[in-house]
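Appendix B, Record 12. Input sequence as logged:
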Amino acid sequence: MARNKNATSHIALLLPLQSGVFGEAARTVQQGFMAAASLEPYGLPVRVYSNYDENNSVANVYREALANGALAVVGPLTRNGVKMLAEVQNFPVPTLSLNVPEIPPAHNLYYFGMAIDAEARQVAQLARQQGHQQAIVITSNESLSRRQQLAFEEQWTFSGGIIVREIDFHGDKSVFSDIVAKPGLMVFFATDVEKSREIHPFLPKELAAYATSQIFLGNDQALINYDLDGIHFVDMPWLLHADQPAMMAYPRAELPLTANNDRLYALGLDAYRLTQLLLTHQEAALPLEGATGRIRLNHSLFQREALPATFVQGRAQTSDAPAAPTVQMFPGQVVNPGTAASDVPETTDVPTLQ
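Logged structural output:
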């Protein structure tokens, strides 16, 4: 592709900053990306490309970035945007998308996101490692809940676990009245934090309970966390180990962020670090202990291991146990982009874990 006469070497960051739906998420990712870049004074300059529609014109802005001298491209942000980017077919420079749609791999095209599906699989693996053989799965009539349910159940049954019951919760607590805690039995909340808080008091206290990061709003939300006491879940070091040196090495956002936006900020931090590895051909340095978790490269997919944690007296506490591996665990799992998101501003299309 021909370069513009005034082309200069740079990292291109493709984000829909002008979008009414995705703009806030895009700006938060940008903040994290630029915060990490600020620690590399001799790194390539970052140029942001934001005047485009992720559903239509991603390929054009990608070609524009190349013509302007981009040596690496990061983005787009949404699942549909990445699908549109794949139509380019030829990727002459390392390209790191920030979502993980189900599309065929291509040379130099990499995927990195925070798909909730991967967390649900990790939770299933963690619960199996902790000795549980039977599971009750609680869902709600929402797309994100269904995705968690599907991913958890696929991994659970593949690893030898048994699904003894599925409960679709619509507000009737009587559906939990006959549940009895038994050795080897656990419950998986494929529900958001509000529904999980509503349900949890109606389950036996002795019943082991698990969930994804959807139920964690931060350790400053003690009252909410008390309602979830005893539930096991997984989340990223950026939220769970915020006071540890490895996380304190990176600048925090100037203004306080919600938990979901903090995760997007961490995504931006790690996206910059992964871009540096791709630019310098240092993939052998992986796994990377990132803000979003331990990151490995599986073909063209950067996979993230979250940290296991448990709610204890109003706070999320981590253990010394290693996170369950995010590797190919069941037949038919798509390893090169397999799990990610739908075009709504939740932990689906925008990687808010989301």
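The two ends are 36 Å apart (CA to CA).
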